[in-house]
Amino acid sequence: MWRPAQSARPLLYQGTMSPLRLEQERPSEWLRWLAEEPDAYEVLVVHSGGLARAAYRIASARCRCQANGETPTLRELQAAAMSIAERLGTPQSLPISSLIAGDCEDQGLPVIRPLPQPPTSRHSSVSSLKRAS
Question: Which conformational region is residue 82 in: left (phi greater than 0), alpha (psi within -120 to 50 degrees), or beta?
């Protein structure tokens, strides 16, 4: 199981902008910075208070980069969580996406979930085929 480093150094950006401001105003630069810093994902999880919020922050930044708003889908949240788990070397311990989404929603972070599939009735499709012949 992954454990945070003994002394996670502060998440500092070498420029004039704080990481939080960089995350909000220039998400592509923030994502690139995360990818380039050796322990940035570990520090992000620690500063975010856990995997769910850290994944949400990454997924939301990716959405802003693509001009898709700020609210990630369940799939985008899972992809961000997988990225973090891979960087931390723990992809096998990744919880299922609905648990991560539920944790985010419990923290007041909205997640776009897929619409439930309506139940299909085999009987009605068979009847339609018989009527068509």
Answer: alpha
